[in-house]
Amino acid sequence: MKARVFVMLKNGVLDPQGAAVQHALGALGFEGVNEVRQGKVIELDLAEGTTEATITEMCEKLLANTVIESYKIELL
Fold first, then answer.
1. pTM of whole model > 0.90?
2. By C-alpha distance, which of 31, 48, 43 is closest to 73?
3. CATH at 69
4. Which of these, 7, 20, 23, 75, is most buried using a 10 Å CB contact count?
């Protein structure tokens, strides 16, 4: 079983990496980029029978800093 976890900073949390990417895109001539938010994708290869509740627990305890980040789980 495989799962993909998308982790993003919550709205309202300053994203300096996203701002740097937005600035660089403008410097390269890419106009019209109003905002960039940068996150991470974590792919998990799990044993059969692993539940979504277990994956949620992984996110809550390690994969995401739930104070400033949100996450979404996609089962593949």
1. no
2. 43
3. 3.30.1280.10
4. 7
